[in-house]
Amino acid sequence: MRHLIVISTLAVAACAAPAPDTSIQSLGQSAHPPAAVAQCIAANWANSSGQTVYMQHVLANGTAFDVYAPGQQPPGGTAAVVRPAMSGPGSSVGLRGSGGNAAGSVNTCL
After folding, report:
1. Starting from the edge strand earliest in sequence, which strands make up the sheet with 53-59, in order?
2. 16: which residues sit within 8 A by CB, 6+ positions away?
3. Domain membership flag for residue 58
4. Residues 10-62: pLDDT tens digits?
5. Is residue 75 part of a domain?
6. Is the dihedral angle over the CA atoms 47, 50, 52, 53 positive or is it negative?
7. 96 and 20 in contact (C-beta within 8 Å)?
8. Quick one: pLDDT at residue 16?
9. Which of 8, 33, 24, 43 is nearest to 91 (CA)?
10. Is residue 100 part of a domain?
């Protein structure tokens, strides 16, 4: 995990950034909390690629994250989108942008 970088952002900074692509491909559900799923995805991508992976807090208290694919940077790069499940505990995971190999490697964290 030597290449894992966590970026905390403020709502004010998000307002100044251009809006990312909103088309999200659903990858599945997890029984684990969003923070654990996001950290798993970031660690897997960093370890398998040897590149820096950015993990961005989208909501406070570890409830939502964007994990940028290796070589991608916030705010507009390809990212795994980890959000609280709509019903019950756990997480919902999607992919924003063109993922290629990224989508397949997320399944190990679900």
Report:
1. 4-8, 53-59, 64-68, 79-84, 91-96, 24-30
2. none
3. yes
4. 343 444 444 544 588 888 899 999 999 999 999 999 888 888 888 888 876 77
5. yes
6. negative
7. yes
8. 44
9. 33
10. yes
pLDDT higher than 80, residue 103: no
Distance of CA 27 to the CA centre of its chain: 12
Residue 5 has pLDDT above 80, yes or no: no
For residue range 63-82, what is the model confidence (pLDDT) as tens digits? 899 999 998 888 888 899 99
Average pLDDT over residues 88-97: 89
Tokens of 43: 């660690």
**How far apart, in whole angstroms, are the C-alpha atoms of residue 11 and residue 53?**
21
**HEC-encoded secondary structure of 29-98:** EECCCHHHHHHHHHHHHHHHHCCCEEEEEEEHHHCEEEEECCCCCCCCCCEEEEEECCCCCCEEEEEECC
Domain count, the chain: 1
Q: Which domain holds residue 86?
A: 4-11+24-109
Residue 19: inside a domain, yes or no?
no
Can you give the pTM of this predicted structure?
Answer: 0.75
